[in-house]
Design a protein that fits this description.
The structure is a single chain. Helix content is 31%, strand content 36%. With 234 residues, it is α+β, with helices and mostly antiparallel strands. It folds into two domains: 125 residues, Nucleotidyltransferase, domain 5, CATH 3.30.420; 76 residues, 2-Layer Sandwich (Dna Ligase, domain 1), CATH 3.30.1490. The strands form two sheets. Strands 3-2-1-4-9 form a five-stranded mixed beta sheet. Strands 5, 6, 7, 8 and 10 form a five-stranded antiparallel beta sheet that branches. A hairpin with a 2-residue loop joins strand 6 and strand 7. The C terminus is likely disordered.
Amino acid sequence: MIRGADFQTYLYLNNTQYIIYVTDNKTNEKICSEKLAIEENTTQLKFSKLDEFLESNILKIEKKLNSFIKDIYVILDSEEFHSIKLSIKKDNNGNPINSEALIHPLSDLKNLCQSNLLNKKIIHLIIEKYVIDNKFYTSLPENVRCNIFSLDTEFICLSKNLIENIEKTLKKYHISLIQILSASYVEKFKDNKDNTIFTTAGRIISGHNSNEVLLTSKITKKQGFFERFFNFFN
């Protein structure tokens, strides 16, 4: 019997196919998968088709695993993602520029984003650039003090209604949605070591992009700073 902690389940959704993909947590190798090709020409997610797909395959996969699928990561390829770029500048008074110094400006940006996009939820929050005393950095430097710093960020958001419909469909099969990932965002990090988008997604979930504020609220491992930040302010 495979325990739930030993495998990770993904659901990939776009307008041409649905895929359930289960990987081994230790090796990241595929355990099993099921796929449905969508013949209809549509840009919208068809929840009736998704429901049929899950009904046909969840029990089948659970029998192979000899274990229940309790939660899932959804990788969504959709034009309904909305990106917004925001910047903020802060006085730092010669203090160290570190993770603690980022808490309040990131919180301010997050609140600004949510106040302008009331019907959307933040899916990915990425720090694109740091400007520290007029010097540019692509990642947060260590052991640096500064007087002024600014952050250039990108928020990738998705309709709350769409998320709720995905959650509602999954709940029919007693499955909780852990996190939605933008397929186009995940694809940016694919390299020669990744055989599938699921391998790349696993690295993203594990914090591969050090400039991403991880958005999952489910605490399954020792968390880094950005995970703690999001959970605190979420």
